[in-house]
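Field reference: "sequence" (input) and "structure" (output). Example, DNA-binding GntR family transcriptional regulator:
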Amino acid sequence: MSESRENSFALPPTRKEAVLRQLRGEIISGRLKPGAVIKDAEIAARLGVSITPVREAIAQLAAEGLIDISPNRTRQVTQVTQKSALELVDVMMVLACAGFEWGVDNLTEHHLATLRRKLDEFAEHLRRGDATAAGAAGADFSTVVIMASGNRELQTHVDLVVTRTLRLLALTPESEVWNVWLNGYRETLELLERGDRSGAVERYRRIYRDYRTLLETLLFRDEA
């Protein structure tokens, strides 16, 4: 592999999947910023693959809402506006909270132990300043409960929205934003461990309400 290629870029399991993971990660982390033009040839050269898997990955990212394709075929990282961001959080709240409510009664001691581990990972990644890993661990926390509902179709839709929600988190590195999630997850788990499942559902729901409020004041403070 040439020195110009990304050192951390791995090809398995398929070239399309590898390119997809790389570009998705760059968009979520903010390395590829909103409005950045995506050029097939440049990405292919940088990652050391042919044009075909790059185009396939871009098509998938467009379906996920992370890349916009204009009528003239120009591809850009989707812009984040106040309206789109708040609508995204609203949709995420509906989906995730429904899954959480449906799954909470099926939680076992094993599930609770997994939630504790994910919470610890989330806190540790935040301590290290790794927002991408923290976001993934936080998403896993919710996934444990949603998957306990047994509704895999719901989880599929949640996964699509989670990717874009993680990008919003990358755009808001302020500590108070992350504290909304950290404190919310911690208090939700404490309620679950005490057997207060209805209280846990309400506390989980409040995470999204609090995050939405902060998003308005932090990410878009300069918008008219």
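The chain has nine helices and three strands.
The chain has two domains: 15-77, 82-218.
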